[in-house]
Write a structure and sequence with these properties.
Structural class: alpha+beta
Largest sheet: 7 strands, mixed
Helix content: 25-40%
Number of strands: 24
Radius of gyration: 31 Å
Strand order of the largest sheet: 15-16-14-13-17-18-21
């Protein structure tokens, strides 16, 4: 009965889809294409739209040829696909080779093509080629005559990068020329033969391929004149033409119907439906989601464009997280898995003499198609679900400062009448005996100390105050801080920053005398900030004593969405490395407590009093909260932004500005040439920062006190594209490069706590390559982290 009902429901759904397809009004598409032809933007076009598993619009417009003869456009017209070759064939082929275990995306290209190492390209990865983050220039030089695929490969392998790898999006045909060579090397087949056998045939495409046969010629849309001859059935791209018509970046010919078959099978595979698409669902999902650096301003999948200067054919309605590509001749494909829709626009806009653009037309056709189908903006849901690069409510990692009104944990606790504490009493007198781990950052929204609030709360007896590094006032920047008494309340203060590890852990006897320990500390959001370790120590103690831990949560000041930097090694635990974490973990103290408890299997009695109004994408200046220095040398948000970078390297023999007015904004030493170092770092084109030389003199008791230091000031230009831990690695690598005799690189591992990264730095591996190597570990960490997230 259920099976029959399902069949009936599917039949009804199918009929509704048919009816919908007939009712949808695509007249706006007719108008847009007609206007473009009247304005001589293109001679004609074929537009094909799929939705809900079927073609809902398919129409030919105008003429496919104006010169030397006039010919009407037909639905079966074959087009030069130009750069659509990249995702349709070359990237798909690379994904297949990965699925077969023949390559990994983070592998250096030179692992398979050793000749590619010339001119400093030894660290460029396959991932960077696929996403256009390789640093290679846009195209091979065509000023001098050359011919043949082998010569193109030779030039591509020998070319010098325009920028360092991994730092800037530069759309480059050379990337895909090299990927074409990679496909041929690993498959042992010419690329045209490989894609015909492994992609075109499995999909059943009848009019798709390189080097179209003579019998297709009459249906091929000509492009433009070359030396007085109209190109028809000969690839338009001049580099691909010199390569003999078969290249990784261009050379494919196809029809709208064949592209529709490709697109629908791709959508079906993503949806888990029966499909002939020649990739598994898992590897295909990787292909169509952002694989660029997390802070990238241009978002690309493997072959597919998601959001970049070239993705205007998405229009304004299809969501961020859908994907597509364009071709220079006038071709375009956009695919939206949310609505099960694709939009194909194929034109030979360069015919007959080039120089015309259909960028605006493709964008407006996408919007017209979405409007006709009743598609509305998804509010960022796809980008949040599919991509993983977004964890903010905005739907994109493009935050602007907002005027938030965040209530921290202590504010919520007060509003709740301390309900989270009442009921924790172990004795029958009704009073809850608590300890409080806090410092100067423990303030409520009215500026009152958490100490005073809890000391005077009904039914609560504040017996003990615990203080972390820098003391309860947060003003001491020395080792071995002693215990004392809070001057205002007379409550004992137990310092947890003594000379030994035992003096940095809470006493189990003291813990047993308490019903609960409340923790109210403002963290810095960085692994080696010691407040995180003392949090872990309290959870460990609570596991043994049964004492309740209540964390009053506060914002991660450098926001909770970015997860960056190398993960510390197992077995390196210390007061600046509680457990394996990336440098920038993207969690609040409450979330860290849940992560520590889960990952360490502590099962401590833990309560997190959640904030109200905080969003993961909020930097501290969006919260409406007053900045209080969490420690003496983190004096403003700019310094907190750079702390994951300069803090990472401060255990080496350089000054990071401690003892000056700008700690963690500058770095230097007496033996550094600041101007030379700033020029070098600026030439690395690191996203979000620039560098200027500076001289400074630290004061006691800090390194180089009283000495004139020469160095660099770091200027943050865009905090949302800055990878601060990678910046720290760049600084260390630069110092090791220019000052190998003076700079004590090995000391970085105190806070780096990652032997592989240290060894790579010692061996002068490019920092961008080092960062690529820790990507997989970060992805695995983010999976574990999700279970601890609150906001």
């Amino acid at each position: 009965m259920r099976a029959r009902l399902l069949v009936v429901l599917l039949s009804i759904a199918g009929c509704m889809s048919c009816a919908f397809a007939q009712e949808a009004d695509f007249s706006a598409v007719d108008t847009l294409v007609g206007q473009a032809m009247e304005q001589h933007q293109l001679p004609g076009a074929v537009v094909e739209i799929g939705h809900g598993g079927r073609v809902v619009f398919r129409k030919a417009y105008g003429e496919r040829s104006l010169e030397p003869t006039r010919e009407a456009m037909t639905l079966d017209t074959i087009f030069d696909m130009a750069s659509l070759t990249k995702p349709l064939m070359t990237a798909t082929a690379v994904m297949q080779l990965c699925e077969q275990g023949k390559l990994s995306f983070n592998d250096p290209v030179t692992k398979y093509l050793p000749e590619f190492a010339a001119n400093g390209k030894q660290d460029i990865t396959i991932r960077q080629l696929l996403t256009h983050y390789s640093g290679l220039p846009p195209d091979l030089l065509l000023e001098e005559p050359w011919e043949g695929k082998a010569e193109a490969f030779r030039q591509a392998f020998a070319i010098q990068p325009a920028t360092p790898a991994g730092v800037r999006f530069v759309y480059s045909d050379i990337n895909y020329i090299v990927l074409g060579a990679l496909v041929e090397k690993l498959s042992g087949m010419p690329e045209d033969e490989y894609v015909r056998e492994k992609i075109i045939a499995p999909l059943g495409l009848q009019n798709t391929g390189y080097l179209p046969p003579v019998e297709w010629r009459d249906r091929i849309a000509p492009t433009q004149y070359e030396h007085g001859v109209m190109l028809r059935g000969v690839v338009h791209d001049p580099t691909a033409r010199r390569m003999g018509g078969v290249a990784g970046h261009a050379g494919l010919f196809s029809t709208a119907d064949d592209v529709a078959v490709y697109a629908q099978n791709l959508l079906d595979r993503l949806a888990g439906k029966p499909s002939r698409f020649p990739l598994s669902r898992a590897i295909l999902e990787k292909m169509v989601t952002p694989e660029t650096p997390a802070t990238a301003t241009a978002l690309r999948g493997f072959g597919w464009d998601i959001e970049s200067p070239y993705s205007s054919n998405r229009g304004e309605i299809f969501p961020v997280g859908s994907f597509g590509h364009t071709g220079f001749t006038g071709t375009s494909l956009w695919i939206d898995p949310v609505s099960d829709t694709y939009v194909i626009v194929l034109a030979n806009a360069v015919h007959p003499n080039g120089g015309k653009s259909v960028v605006a037309l493709r964008r407006t056709i996408a919007d017209a198609a979405a409007a006709a189908l009743g598609i509305v903006s998804d509010g960022g849901k796809l980008s949040a679900k599919l991509t993983g690069y977004n964890e903010s409510l905005s739907g994109m990692r493009r935050w602007v400062a907002r005027n938030g009104n965040v209530k921290t944990g202590i504010d919520v606790l007060e509003t709740d009448g301390f309900a989270e504490l009442h009921g924790l009493a172990k004795k029958h007198d009704g009073h809850v005996r608590i300890g409080l781990l806090t410092n100067q950052t423990g303030l409520d929204g009215a500026g009152r100390r958490t100490i005073d609030i809890l000391a005077h709360a009904d039914g609560i007896e504040l017996k003990t105050i615990f203080s972390p590094e820098h003391g309860v006032s947060g003003a001491q920047d020395t080792e071995n801080i002693g215990s004392g008494t809070d001057a205002q309340t007379g409550i004992p203060v137990i310092s947890l920053y003594g000379a030994t590890e035992a003096q940095r852990r809470p006493s189990l006897d003291v813990m047993r005398s308490l019903d609960a320990v409340v923790i109210d500390l403002q963290d810095a959001g960085v692994r080696f900030y010691t407040y995180e370790t003392v949090l872990g120590y309290f959870l460990e103690a609570a596991e043994k004593t049964g004492t309740n831990i209540v964390v009053l949560d506060r914002p991660n000041p450098i926001n909770g969405s970015f997860v960056q930097g190398p993960i510390s090694d197992e077995g390196t635990a210390s007061y600046v490395d509680y457990m394996p974490l990336p440098v920038r973990h993207g969690m609040t103290m409450g979330e860290l407590a849940q992560y520590f408890d889960r990952e360490r299997n502590l099962h401590a009695p833990l309560t997190v009093v959640k904030m109200e109004g905080w969003q993961r994408g909020d930097w501290y200046d969006s919260t409406g909260l007053t900045w209080v220095n969490p420690s003496p040398n983190l004096r403003d948000l700019e310094e907190a932004m750079l702390y994951p970078a300069l803090g990472l390297v401060e255990t080496t023999n350089i000054s990071v500005g401690r003892g000056t007015d700008t700690p963690f904004e500058i770095f230097g030493a007496p033996w550094i040439d600041g101007r030379k170092l700033a020029r070098y770092l600026n030439a690395r084109f690191l996203q979000g920062v620039r560098f200027v030389s500076v001289d400074f003199m630290p004061q006691k008791p800090y390194p180089y006190a009283g000495e004139n230091c020469h160095g660099v000031r770091v200027l943050v230009l865009d905090r949302n594209v800055l990878d601060a831990p990678e910046l720290g690695i760049e600084i260390a690598a630069a110092l090791h490069k220019w000052y190998p005799q003076d700079y004590k690189l090995e000391r970085i591992n105190t806070l780096l706590a990652n032997r592989q990264v240290l060894d790579s730095l010692m061996n002068r591996v490019d920092p961008a390559r080092i960062a690529e190597d820790w990507r997989l570990a970060l992805e695995q960490f983010e999976v574990r982290r999700k279970a601890a997230l609150i906001y």
